[in-house]
Amino acid sequence: MKGTLQLLLALSLAVGCASPGSGPPLSAPGADYQVHPTGASGEQMPPWAGRERSWQKLRMIGDWLAHEGAFADDFWVVEAHLELAEGRAAYAPSEPALAEERRQAAIAGFLRVLAHPGATASQRQRAQSGLDTLDPSGLLEASAPYAIPGVLPRSTWGARPPALARLDPADAPWNWITVHHSAEPGAKPLSGSLNDSAKAIRDIQTAHMSGKNYGDIGYHFVIDPSGRVFQARELRYQGAHAYGKNNIGNVGICLLGNFEHEHPTQAAVEAMHGLIDVLRRRLGIPPDHVRGHYEWRQTACPGRYLKPELERYRHARPGSL
User: Fold this and answer.
1) How far apart are CA 89 and CA 103, in angstroms?
2) What is the pLDDT of residues 227-277, one digit of tens each?
3) Bridge partners of residue 252, in order along the sequence
4) Domains of the chain
5) Is the torsion defined by CA of 67, 71, 73, 75 positive or negative?
6) Distance (Å, rounded) from C-alpha 79 to C-alpha 33?
7) For residues 211 and 241, what is the distance between their CA atoms, to the nearest angstrom?
8) Order of strands, edge to edge, in the sheet holding 221-223?
């Protein structure tokens, strides 16, 4: 049960909002809410805590999670995701065109709370109650949460089996997406064929597993010049692409090529933007948590010609509910 829930994380903060509609009354928080006027470490209540439900409050929570929430006590982080999910569920019927999108975002939020190791008993109870209301059939438990349409499976590029003993499970919520370029020394220019791309990915996997003793290829997704998106390391495992603790909760995307010396193709850039959009919706990652490798450590990665495309993405996707 725990392993399944750890995979079923949030969609994203990027669910459109307009007028709130009436919505049901604010759910009563659990008793532990009253004994947490400050976080466990003595921090003050977030500015949104205790306010009545409104779209303004949900926007406040979204902004808080993207910034102060990264350093906050687990109780308030869980409470923030829980109140976002409850609010989206309450307001889903107010605009029929957005109802299903908000319902799915609410479901993902409740699942995120249930998977969070810091959730209290009453927070879990509220999340389960919300989930039971939105998904009475319980079919979500058997779904494939990371099955992304259009992503080619590992078998497409001939992946070798991972060394499971050298992999860390992805126990933490996904909070970051990091973009890389492959820039493999001595790599031949790619023709754009599937065979060429498959061999390039296998070469990276071999370099990571045999040369660096990784449990698998370090990235979660690889994009080739033709815009094909390949599943690399499965999302059930923490990546090995951003160095040490930077890998926790961090999805790794690698574009094949060396973008210090060449421009990425338009097909690859569009595929990258599309994949990031889907991952953000499914995992609840704000646009300012999409980074280049160079923002984690001193490196030219993902190359001077790809960096502007990453910046363009962040500026074009402001966070919203």
Assistant:
1) 6
2) 999 999 998 899 999 999 999 999 999 999 999 999 999 899 989 988 998
3) 178
4) 2-142 (no CATH), 151-316 (3.40.80.10)
5) positive
6) 9
7) 14
8) 151-152, 229-231, 221-223, 250-255, 176-181, 290-292
